[in-house]
Amino acid sequence: MTAVSPHATFRDPAGSLHFEDGLVLRRVAACARAEALDLLATPFCQAMQQRGDLIHAEVDDSGRQLCLRHPMVPIPTYPWEWTPSQWLAAADLTLTLCEESLAAGWILKDATPLNILFIGPRPIFVDILSFERRDPVSHDPARHAARSSIWLAYGQYIRTFLLPLLMDRLLHWPLSLSLFRRDGYEPAECFAALPWRSRLSPAAFWPIALPTLLDRRKPSAAPQSQNAPQKRSPALDPEAATHILLRTLRGLRRRTRRAAPRFAASDWSNYQQTLTHYTPSQGQQKLDWVRRVLQSTQPARVLDIGANTGEFSALAASLGAEVVALERDQAAADRLFQMARQRKLSIQTIHADLARPTPAVGWLNSESTALLPRLEAQFDLVLMLAVIHHLLLMEQVPLPDILALCHRLTRRHLVVEWVPVEDPMFQGLLRGRDALYGSLTEADLIDACNGLFRVVDRQPLDNGRVLLLLEQTGAQRIDSNRIEEC
Question: What is the pTM of this model?
Answer without folding.
Answer: 0.89
